[in-house]
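Reopening this one. Same input as before:
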Amino acid sequence: MRYTSDLSDSEWRLIDFCFPKPNKTGRPRKHPFRELLNAIFYILKTSCQWRNLPTHFARWGTVYHYFRLWKRNGLWVDIHTHLREHARQVEGRKRHASAAIIDSQTVKSTETSDERGYDAGKKVNGRKRHILVDTIGLVLMVMVLPANIQDRDGAKQLLAAFFSQATPRRIKHIWADGGYGGALLDWAQRLWRCTIEIVKRSELHTFKVLPRRWVVERTFGWLGRYRRLNRDYERQAKTGETMVYLAMIRLMLARLARL
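Same output, byte for byte:
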């Protein structure tokens, strides 16, 4: 049985090298990696519970084991990074971005979440996804925090984690909305030599496409195509971040396979 979330042959060829090849000796693998990925993308697309995974997939415990294993060893992030750099080159850009846009999205969470807070502005009890995207909307980093943490404080944690990675980061300029003003601008310039430009609305209560900021809003729209992300169902914030990377992996695979 095929689902719309399943990987096509061309999509699988883009990432099959990321997984170990079968051994020539010993017992053959019962569940191919592609089958496990199809099950994980089914969860992401439909938002069903792990235990309610259709029976023609691998046993739910097996699927969840590999999802958690690849989350812990960083494989999901590695695949996401590879696909993002590939997608940027296909667009005629350099592998590493030099400018970015930052924003946040507040979503409701369930009672199983280990950490959540109340966003008084949105009147939502849940979590907040802070994302940094490049100028074509591809995610550079995501961080999930309780919703009561303000944007500028969440941005400090996100940018500190982003610029502290081992690989060199070339981001020199970031666009943001008014919620990121204040001391954050001097902090980013002083520590990371990165300028933050605030793009403000010219008129209140009037819809207008704002320069650069529409890019990150479009990314949130892409994420909304996956029902698992319409609400934060995860116990751990790290799992919520992984689900965002998974959604972008699925989106980039579909985009690259059409070329």
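So the earlier flakiness isn't reproducible anymore. For the record, The mean pLDDT is 91.
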